[in-house]
Design a protein that fits this description.
5-stranded antiparallel sheet; 174 residues; mainly beta
């Protein structure tokens, strides 16, 4: 398998790189154009076919979650609405859903959201940030005010409101 990570430098600019977990030299997966682009926290889907990351195109934009096929990241599309600021995307083990930290107007603070790109929806799961999902996908942990919390994903989904994602979310990228 491979691991993806952000790269930058005076000569290379902002890019996403990948390296084999068995060693070797890293390779550029996607290079961004323009001096104001930034990309952080790339994450490969469990099967390695898709990549998700947090990206900003200019200082006047919100950070957003972007997805693309791993072999063709130039066709990336934004998953989160423009009015939502989001970062720290992580795939669930099923490879169909993503958790992230996000904020929308009206939220009580930074929140953990579940993105369901194929269904075209997202759901606020908890007030907190920096989520990580258990290997079986049934629970997640997150940080809130310096404390670490664990929650049952199914229970949070039952109690959450469904929000529509931009209509072309994942279909355009895949």
């Amino acid at each position: 398998g491979e691991s993806a990570f952000p790269g930058n430098g005076a000569q290379r600019g902002v890019n996403i790189r990948a390296i084999s977990m068995t060693g070797g030299v890293s390779r550029v997966v996607h290079a961004f154009s323009g001096p104001q682009h930034a990309a952080v926290q790339p994450s490969l889907s469990p099967d390695g076919s898709l990549m998700v990351w947090a990206q900003i195109g200019s200082m006047r934009e919100n950070w957003g979650i972007v997805v693309a096929r791993a072999e063709n990241p130039e066709r990336a599309c934004r998953l989160t609405p423009l009015e939502m600021s989001a970062y720290a995307p992580r795939w669930l083990p099923d490879g169909r859903r993503i958790v992230c930290t996000a904020y929308r107007a009206g939220d009580p603070g930074w929140c953990v959201y579940l993105l369901e790109p194929i269904e075209g929806t997202c759901r606020r799961l908890a007030v907190g940030k920096n989520p990580a999902v258990s290997p079986d996908g049934k629970t997640f942990v997150y940080d809130r005010d310096g404390g670490l919390y664990r929650a049952d994903l199914a229970a949070c989904l039952k109690a959450s409101e469904c929000i529509r994602l931009p209509p072309d979310s994942i279909q355009e990228a895949v």
